[in-house]
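--- STAGE predict ---
source: upstream dedup step, 1 unique chain passed
mode: sequence only
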Amino acid sequence: MVQDIFEKIKNNRGPIGQHAKESHGYFTFPKLEGPIGPHMIFRGKKRLNWSLNNYLGLANHPEVRKADAEAAAEFGFAAPMGARMMSGNSNYHEQLEAELSAFVQKEDTILCNFGYQATLSAIDCLVDRRDVIVYDAESHACILDGVRLHMGKRYVFKHNDMEDCEKQLARATKLADEQGGAILVITEGVFGMRGDQGKIKEIVELKKKFNFRLFVDDAHGIGTLGATGGGAGQEQGCQDGIDVYFGTFAKSFALIGGFISSDEQVVEYLRYNMRSQIFAKALPLPLVVGALKRLELMRNMPELKENLWTITNALQKGLVDAGFNIGETDTCVTPVYMNGSIPESTNLIFDLRENYNIFCSMVVYPVVPKGMIILRLIPTAVHTLEDVEYTIDAFKKIVGKLKAGEYVSDKIASV
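--- STAGE serialize ---
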């Protein structure tokens, strides 16, 4: 019997969507107002905000705001019109690509309109049905969607498990040899939920035993890791072993868009074959000029990253000293692991926001296993040590309430 698509949607709202009516506008799709920073307005009250990936505090840096405003006034957001291959190229686009290439130590770079789109479509472009993909089990959704587009075989290895990675590479090698294909290994520089770095250096070492190319999504690493902010590969001393490097503008750059850097011939191939860029309008000039200014500040103001790590170290040490479990993070991403149901987590977050004026992200099933709650904190260069101290004190109080059963409920919090 043929079903109606709309009826299927009505009957199955999805694991998160089933709570949409109760959660929309508060737990999901909240509206943060005012200048982007560590203190913003939520539902009419100022809150201490730990939910924005504004790592270096560039979103409201005066030089950034000035550059953005001047570029918008000069060019408007229509320019350039059209896809870059046809009519949308500019000297500014090419300048940004050249400067990014130098920053991440690669030969060439292609700009992309959206980070998610860039990773997904690059994977689709790089492999064909004879090729084999090997990827980390906890890869970001953009990687998983790119893998889903792949018409060939894929093997997944347990998160950061090099023994399993090697096992999957052996399987991939056998199949690729039979099919006359190639192998693409995909991992992340920083896993955005756990906060641990991908084992890039160890994967690069496996090139001595296997013939493959390595794609790294370094969305959370660019700007935050490495001596000059060049990312997780720079941090681990193996940037040259990364064959295809992805970075986003949506985090440390406090913008939108992304880029892919690699060998010149690979980037040229992407430039002429990546459908999402060939058939999409170029990044507007104000965004490109704004990214140039942000990159300039990253290069010339090392104190931004130093401030970020001062706050990060204080926050993570303070949480651990207070008895909290922050897992194996070795980056700025700071997950705080607790045990509880979805209703308990919503009551906890409601209390945290309304009575302690702290806004942070809540992660529950299906993103993490049932019975687990993650409160994910994102420190930035513009937070203060007073913000850290206040937050740790508040967390001590809410975890006490959680353990005492004060948040137990059969349904999510009523707002």
